Amino acid sequence: MNNPIEPVELLVCTTCRRGQATDVEGERPGALLHDALRAQEVPEGVTLRAVECLSNCDYGCSLVLRGGDQRWTYVYGKFHEATDAEMILDVAARYRDTADGLIPWRERPVHFRKNCIARIPPLSQIPTF
Ligand code: FES
Questions:
Q1: Which domain, by its residues, includes 91?
Q2: Ligand 1 center–CA 30 separation, angstroms
Q3: How many domains in the chain?
Q4: pLDDT > 80? residue 3
Q5: Confidence check: pLDDT of 4 > 80
Q6: Closest CA to 114 of 87, 93, 94
Q7: Is 43 inside a domain boundary?
Q8: How far, in Å, CA of 29 to CA of 19, rounded?
Q9: In the list 25, 67, 81, 127, which could disulfide-bond 8, CB 3.0-4.6 Å?
Q10: 13 Cβ below 6 A of ligand 1
């Protein structure tokens, strides 16, 4: 079921090197991950966006799930461009189906359980002083 509140964005860092030396030529792993995601069917209500460095370079490839001012925002890392696209899109769809961004723990793949870099509360839950 789609969240009637806000659509979801999946931001993928295309500059991630995933531990590669800076002098390695060719496409970066982050760009390859973005390509792998684009090659699949992105779930309805999820917009895939390419971004540059998310300041999680030591634990790339990195991405963000965010969606409006009612959902928690999450930063995740340590993805691999060759194996993780399908899992990422499945989680993006589960995230879209929540009102608050909180996917039940047992529904999260182990990779997402173990590689959450940060979570940011929704604007609606931040009190003003
Ligand atoms: S280059 Fe991807 S997080 Fe910095």
A1: 8-125
A2: 8
A3: 1
A4: no
A5: no
A6: 87
A7: yes
A8: 9
A9: 67
A10: yes
